[in-house]
Amino acid sequence: MKRTWTVPVLYVLCGAVVAAWRAFEGSSGTAAVLLVLFVLLAVAHSTVVFPRSIGAQEAQRRSALDGRPVVFWRPGCAYCLRMRVKLGRGARQAHWVDIWRDPAGAAAVRAANDGNETVPTVLLAGQAHTNPDPAWVRENLSPSA
Hints:
Elements: H1 6-24, H2 28-44, H3 56-66, E1 70-73, H4 78-87, E2 95-98, H5 103-112, E3 121-124, E4 127-130, H6 134-139
Parallel strand pairs: 1-2
Antiparallel strand pairs: 1-3, 3-4
């Protein structure tokens, strides 16, 4: 769980250092803007912007019942963030599994990607799709949720 917050914490620390440096140089406006920018980057790379993650086994069970895709992701992944942003509100219709929190999820991703933990990996109807087009995923979301 520690590594889930490593990237966001590094963004905040770097932002604080850069902002402090700019403030000591007398540019407090620039310092404030930079600090806000780094905090926004930290939030974007944290688990906060993603729907609540569940375990891989539970996600696959739910997917079998409702036909919704399972999205395997990890914090700090730019492609996962892209997927989340492009899906918009529809992202809540998918079942999300954080592979850093769920060893079974990481194992499922490795099994689908020749031993690599390549994310996002979307499981739909028993087939894994590695880094699919977000528009394709959006088309396969169930409108009933």
